[in-house]
Amino acid sequence: MKEPDWKYLVDAFLFISLGGMALIGILLGLVIPAGPVSSESAKYFLGLHRHQWGNIHAYLSIAFVVLTVVHIVLNWKWITARTSQIFRRRAAPILISAVSVPFLVLIIFWVLTPKDAARYREYGIEIPERGHLQKMVTKDKVPVAGEAVSKQEYPAEDEFQVEPQRREDATGEDHRAVGSVLISGRQTLYDIERATGLSARSIADRLGLPSSASLNETLGRLRRLYGFEIQEVRELVDRMLKE
Asked: pTM here?
């Protein structure tokens, strides 16, 4: 291929990646809801979760940067010649400044953005789960000397502790042990994998979940999305443990 053909091809892919970034940006900003007040099922569009669309946006951004560098390399002679015609002796400083602008803009945004981790601690967490998060934060609280600390502030040592019998938490959610593993809607498939040694992917496949289903989502959210019951998970894990 000749140099003009390469330029045409690079510019075409630049347009495609830029268009994809713009469309996904509109989806994330205006179509797919975000934040703790939105239900998890509403954060899916065309079968992909909001975070999956964000990953695609990131990949397109990387491709766009690489293609931009290639575009500049292919057109470098024209860029330097044109810059010299316009700015004459100041061409070199202008080119250096142009390359530095993206990094300067990034630094400016970083400096001006508030560094407030507490503001985003509960972002993306559904309201019923906030109390659980606050309990976990309280658990790590260091009491001041002379301060009386109530035992009620501290949750159980292990959220997924072993319990041989059925129980209900304060919200009325059913928790039931399977063998030596407590399974509830707050756990994820990865939690079960760590507790039992069973493959999270194998459990998901035998439940009939699609390959796009997140293994790091809580069982409660997966149940609402794919229509199974927590008891089905308990029975499946019990069978797999016996196998």
From this structure: 0.48
The rounded distance, in Å, linking the Cα atoms of 202 and 220 is 18
- What average pLDDT does the segment 198-219 reach? 88
- The more confidently predicted of residues 129 and 45 is 45
User: What span, in angstroms and rounded, lies between the C-alpha atoms of 234 and 179?
Assistant: 9
Sequence-separated (6 or more) residues with CB below 8 Å from residue 209? 222, 226
| C-alpha–C-alpha distance, residues 127 and 123, integer Å | 10
Contacts 24+ apart (CB under 8 A), 51-60: 52/212, 53/24, 53/27, 53/28, 54/24, 54/28, 56/20, 56/24, 57/20, 57/21, 57/24, 57/25, 57/28, 60/17, 60/20, 60/21, 60/24
pLDDT tens digits, one per residue of 119-147: 555 555 444 444 444 444 444 444 444 44
